[in-house]
Amino acid sequence: MMDLPQHQRLWHILIDCTRQYRVHEREIREEDIGGVVHVVTYEPLPHAREAPETETVVDCVLLKIGVDRPKAESYRDEFASLMKPLAGMLEQGPSYITLGAEIGDLPDGARPGARPVAGNNPR
After folding, report:
1. Which residue has better confidence, 114 or 16?
2. Is the pTM of this model over 0.85?
3. DSSP 43-99
């Protein structure tokens, strides 16, 4: 298991090296809930086609992740060290669901961006 400072450092690295992109067209939904509340929902992520050419874009099915390879390479050793406590869990192969659950962001385990464990955002 990782402790909170390790989680925060991992989040810092992932946020610094990656960016989330949507794969579908922007959708805006509006609905009334119980006649009392009007809710507007939209997807704020940029579309994957907007990723700069300098990023390597990885398809994670529900979203795409842009990776700044030079930046990621600069963190390689530290990232590997931070991932050591998770080695046993990841031996069966990469799983963004498994990794996301461990680092506190299930939908975005490949590239967390919302909030890390315990709600401490390193930004």
Report:
1. 16
2. no
3. --SPBGGGS-TTSEEEE-SSSEEEE-HHHHHHTHHHHHHHHGGGHHHHTT---HHHH
